[in-house]
Amino acid sequence: MARLAIMDATLQDGSRADVIIEDEHIVEVGLGAGRSADDRIDAAGGLLLPAYIDTHVHLDKVLIRDQLAEHDGTLAGAIGAIHAAKRAYTVQDVRRRARAVIEASVLTGTTRLRSHVDVDTIGGLVPLDGVLTAAQDCAGIAEVQVIAFPQEGLLRDPGAAELMAEAMERGATIVGGMPHWEATEDEQREHVRICFELAARYDADVDMHVDETDDGSVRTLAMVLDETERCGWQHRVTVGHVCALSAADDEYADRVVADCARLGVTVVSNPVTNLVLQGRGDRGLVRRGTTRISELLAAGVGVAFGQDCVQDGFYPYGRGDMLEVALVSAHAAHLTTVREQQQALAAVTTTPAAAWHLGWRYGVAAEARADLQLFAAASWPEVMRLQDPPRQVWFRGRTVARTTVTRELLR
After folding, report:
1. 302, burial (CB in 10 Å: exposed 0-12, middle 13-18, buried 19+)
2. For 348-361, how does the pLDDT look when each residue is reduced to its tens digit (9 = 90+)?
3. Which residues lie across from 209 on neighbouring strands?
4. Is pLDDT at 1 greater than 60 in this prediction?
5. For the chain, which domains are there?
């Protein structure tokens, strides 16, 4: 394959370099390295970053908001409102909507998406089949991992556990869960046990929705951490949302934060959705609905940000744009210093990459796979502030998206 040179790019550390791509990988990074390339692209000093990774999205639910009855805006209200739509899903409908959001994500720099997909007795495996088909459709521009996700519970929804196993046989590769949705603590603990048992059966990672509630007394995070250690699943577990941790007492919070760090558990916060869903019952000082992002980062826990929802029952906005997600999340988590802004970048790049256990190097460096994006702005703080999309996006060394922005001020 011809050698491609991205000439005069600014790297994350502020240095300038040519980046040489051959086949699917970066083969050289350095000043003057691109002189012998067959094809050259002038970066003109623009920032070259690895492509984003959205490690928490629900592709089966996207773009259904217009079909739903209005509800009270809470998590429970959204779940209930979606039931009727879920019963009416077809594989082709899910495929069409999921594909639209995958394509929109690629245009804004995301080439890897990890999607939770509802597995329950309401929709059966129709959502799974639709998302798997969309993932195949888009395999040339992005990679999609699929999580079997029991949105309606396992004890609350008899038959869902069997469907979860079937979903793993059909192509899901990660075991999801939502233990806080069960009715009692014993049932929550059993939910966690069933999920880890299934993960062991399929040698799969675990990625659970955990404690997406304002109630600080809900503590299924501790149950997940206990089971992680008991099963020896260190560095193979991701927990999403974890909103209740912000309302919990500090003694409990300190303990579970330390355990997340010790066990290598990744925490995915979804501020764009949870700013809308949580705190609905508050007056005056309304809770932000996020987890303890700063404390988790300070403890060395991997913290990622996810889009979560795109125009569904939970969230009426969203467009699969991780740059927008990073900006909103930085507001919610008070990430304002230069170092903190770099943490926001890590939350949509290197941290989710580590959680994916990629079998190849990720980043802008020799031997890394060429999943890249190029911006007109020369620094991450400027990219985040201006919110312009990437000029060009590469997946496996091939250009998969271009955006041209023209602005003209008329006086």
Report:
1. buried
2. 999 999 999 998 89
3. 240
4. no
5. 4-51+361-402 (2.30.40.10), 59-356 (3.20.20.140)
Distances (CA, A) of 30 to 48, 52, 65, 376, 398: 13, 23, 48, 20, 20
Angle, vertex CA 19, rays to CA 13 and CA 20, nearest 5: 155
Q: 């911006």: which residue's tokens?
A: 375
Which helix (H) or strand (E) is 402 found in, with range?
Answer: strand 398-402
In this structure, the number of other CB atoms found within 10 A of the CB of residue 92 comes to 12
Question: Which stretches of 108-144 are DSSP H helices?
Answer: 126-137
Q: What sign for the dihedral angle of Cα 394, 396, 397, 399?
A: negative
Residues forming beta bridges with residue 38, ordered by sequence position? none
Mean pLDDT lowest for which of 168-172, 265-269, 286-290, 362-366?
286-290
Strands 372-374 and 48-50: what pairing? antiparallel
Average pLDDT along the chain: 96
Distance CA 384, CA 381 (A): 5
Please report, as a single letter, which amino acid is at residue 234. Answer: Q
Q: Which of 313, 238, 286 is nearest to 75 (CA)?
A: 313
Is residue 252 helix, strand or coil? helix
* Contact (Cβ atoms closer than 8 angstroms) between residue 111 and residue 51: yes
The CA-based diameter of the chain, rounded to the nearest angstrom, is 69
DSSP type of residue 11: P
CB 58 within 8 A of CB 64: no
Residue 168 belongs to what H/E stretch?
A: helix 160-170
CA-nearest of 360, 340, 339, 363 to 350 is: 363
